[in-house]
Amino acid sequence: MNNKKTKYPTPSQHDLDVWYxxxxxxxxxxxxxxxxxxxxxxxxxxxSWSKIFKDKIILEVGCGHGHHLKYSNxxxxxxxxxxIEIKYLFTLLSRYPNNSVINxxxxxxxxxxxxxxxxxxxYNFEHLRMLNLALEEIYRVxxxxxxxxxxxxxxGGFLYGLGRSxxxxxxxxxxxxxxxxxxxxxxHCNTYHDIVNHLKRKFRIVERRFLPFYFPSVHLNAIVCxxxxxxxxxxx
Length: 236
Fold this sequence. Notes:
37% of the residues are buried. The longest helix is centred in the N-terminal third of the chain and has 17 residues. This protein has a domain of 158 residues: Vaccinia Virus protein VP39 (Rossmann fold). 40% of the residues lie in helices and 22% in strands. The protein contains 9 helices and 7 strands.
């Protein structure tokens, strides 16, 4: 039997159980300190891009605790937040009770074809194991002149990996005693390049914004924001 240790071991069931209960804590903690400054800037850029849709139907896929509502600097009139974790939706509603939420699956969006003006997804695509299917669904529900706005960590890049090793990794391992490298490798199943390659099958990327240094390199930044338009629909 080969006992050679892999770079990213599979997380134990114990670590996964602890992670399930601890992840809401990390979600809020990531909005503090220097990490929080990067995260907030991503929301602000998506917020500025979404301004033209603020009076139209906006769907956020993977809305979590509602951080985008807090940090986007936008007052959306027809906002819908979708998340598969109902506990996150309860937190969102406790903080922002005047908004609408849906407990739903990114792979089967509960919307009619071409019914949504703008889809937002912030720090979510890296987690989607069937990203292609989620993008098919987003493509289906978006209006032909709609827009997909997303922000993702620069997963697979040098600076992002270094930052994680200095911030969230020691925080989570000290507080919860879990193998955080194993958890992240399990949770972040898509790198930046994976996401871009999947995205290009159905969408045209019209703008990318790299943070915090703006130079267009995944290795020299921590966050990447993108604006993407659906490739022309073909009526059947």
